[in-house]
Specification:
CATH topology of the largest domain: Maf protein
Strand content: 15-25%
CATH class of the largest domain: Alpha Beta
Radius of gyration: 19 Å
Strand order of the largest sheet: 6-5-7-8-9-10
Oligomer: single chain
CATH architecture of the largest domain: Alpha-Beta Complex
Helix content: 25-40%
């Protein structure tokens, strides 16, 4: 007897939260007799007519939606299609963003390398960030992330760059830039940078916390909130509890993150979202 296995697809919405996406999709889900389940940053659509939903969603949301098993592999495939090579500059994410690309087979075709520019000295010496910008705006700022992007493109000869700088906590925040504030940028060579400011709210005990964005989804939407401490971002580390592997951007629910790690995780998620929205 042939077993009836329900079809399913994984959907990533790049410009909206999942609650809003569900409202827009609800009528079509009912018509096609499909179920919607949330898995970290994606929606799992289950049912025999899941493929029909995918075609409908791609027509409605166009480049604001991606469908696949994990967002990193989708990004690597998109980079290959566009003929772009990527390099990264990371501060608060401490190399985690680069890791999520390089853990995938085939990443070497599009990923050139990355700099963990954790200390301000490294931002200046390796990436060419201006010391006056660090003095006036602080490491966690749109101005500095823009210079990190341009420096990365120049040093690596990359077609596109991603950069992160923020306050992962638990300390180091201020009234203007509280813990969870992260500036995320991407730039295609010879084009203007696109930088967004996020205020991540960690969900302790599991990945996939909340996020508030200052104008997310629009170009150059980050807002500088005044000067801050000149100290570098808090160092990023990943905890391997009980020998567990560091998860992909769609980690197992059983893995437990600290609030700090969850902010780092969310920043990487949004950085790849930003890349996919703009290439």
């Amino acid at each position: 007897m042939r077993q009836n296995v329900s079809k399913h697809i994984k959907v990533f919405f790049l410009n909206m939260d999942l609650d809003s996406a569900r409202v827009l999709c609800d009528e079509t889900l009912r018509k096609l007799a499909l179920t919607w389940e949330v898995e970290n940053a994606s929606a799992i659509i289950k049912g025999e007519r899941a493929d029909e939903f995918a075609k409908w969603a791609q027509g409605i949301f166009q480049h604001h939606i991606v469908i696949g098993e994990d967002i990193e592999s989708i990004a690597i495939r998109r980079l290959k299609e566009e003929g772009l090579c990527l390099a990264t500059a990371e501060s608060c994410t401490g190399g985690l963003l680069a890791y999520h690309f390089t853990r995938n087979a085939g990443a070497s075709e599009v990923f050139l390398g990355g700099v963990v520019s954790y200390a301000n000295e490294i931002k200046e010496r390796i990436l060419g960030v201006d010391s006056a910008s660090l003095e006036d705006f602080g490491a966690v700022s749109e101005v500095v992330v823009a210079q990190m992007l341009s420096g990365t493109i120049e040093r690596f000869g990359a077609g596109v760059a991603l950069a992160t700088s923020g306050v992962a906590g638990p300390g180091g925040g201020s009234a203007q830039k509280p813990v969870g504030t992260v500036f995320i940028g991407m730039q295609i060579a010879n084009k203007e940078p696109i930088i967004e400011r996020y205020n991540f709210v960690p969900k302790v005990g599991g990945a996939g916390g909340g996020v508030n964005s200052a104008g997310a989804g629009s170009a150059n939407s980050a807002i500088n909130a005044g000067a801050e401490s000149k100290s570098s971002d808090t160092q990023a580390t990943m905890r391997l509890d009980s020998g567990a592997c560091v998860p992909r951007l769609t980690p197992c629910h059983a893995l437990s993150f600290s609030a700090r790690e969850d902010i780092q995780y969310q920043a990487c998620q949004k950085a790849i979202d930003l890349l996919l929205k703009n290439i």
